[in-house]
Structures are given as C-alpha cells and as structure tokens.
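Dig into what follows:

_____
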Amino acid sequence: MELVPEAISTLKDIKIHEVDVIDVKCSRGRSDAKIFLDPHSYTEKEKNAFLKILRMTRSLIEAHCMQDQGWYRCPNLTFEFDEHFKKVSRIEDLFKQIAKDPIEDPKKDEDES
C-alpha cells in the first residue's frame, strides 16, 4: 500500500501530494486495482480535480510501481474517494439520536388504559 502514495509523491503537481491513500483493493487476477482516497473535507469540485489529475497521470504511477517492484505488468489503477467513513459517521449520528429520543413502548400505553 505504500507504493502508490510513494508514486503519487513523485508527481510534479504539488497539490496532488495532499491526497491520502486509505486502501488498495486488487482484483483476484491482479489485473485491476482500486485505490481508495481519503475525502477529508474536500468539495466535489476539488475531488473531481484530484481525480482528473490522477487519471491523467495514471500511466506514470503504474510505471513507477512496475519499476520499483520489478514487475512485468502493473494492475490497471482506478481512483475513487472512499465515502465509507462518511456513511459510518451518519449511522453513528443516528444511533446517538435514537439514544436521546427513546421510542415509546406500545405495550406500555395499552397497560395504562
């Protein structure tokens, strides 16, 4: 996983050095690899700009990986921002809200009648 951030750090565009790689998932045959990036608090416009730069420099990143590892072939890299943490945060917020507002027990209402 350190290989991709290292390759990104060799790119001339300094702005792209801000991007953090969270995870790399390779397909079974190792022909494709999905690179998950940390979305931080980037706007959609910033995310799209980062993805555009990464798509344009993908061959340079792949070449760096092949050269560093002595591979004959590198997986086809695709990049995307990982929204998993945002979803987990929303779920945690929902649990907190549920804990604050307990649900009324319908059986309790029937017993009081």
Summary: The helical segments are 3-9, 44-56, 58-69, 84-100, 106-112. The chain has one domain: 3-82. Strands lie at 21-26, 32-37, 76-81.
